[in-house]
Amino acid sequence: MTNAAPAPQTDPPKTPVTLGRCLVGAAIAGGLAIAAYFLTASIAQTFAAKPPTGGSALALNIAIAVRTLVVGVTALATGVFGFVSLGLVALGIQTALFGNKEPKPDSN
User: Fold this and answer.
1) Domain ranges in the chain?
2) Cα dist from 75 to 9, 50, 72, 107, whole Å
């Protein structure tokens, strides 16, 4: 067995957190949240206007489950993008008020 020392890992350069970057990210996430909301509403209205048809109870249950999953996934995307947008706005406010403070490395 050889005891080769692992190669040191270098961290990629970190981009600074600025108010502008936070607000641009929040605007993008907010736009995606709004788009996902309209998509969710459109899908839900389409599904409500066309009830599932099927010959058997099994086919009807599968159709209902798929519809529920589709609406649920789009609603989840809406919520995730909305919370990301709010979090980026909050981070931007924090950065504007307190600045960008890097944590001090341990000096053990």
Assistant:
1) 19-98
2) 40, 20, 5, 47
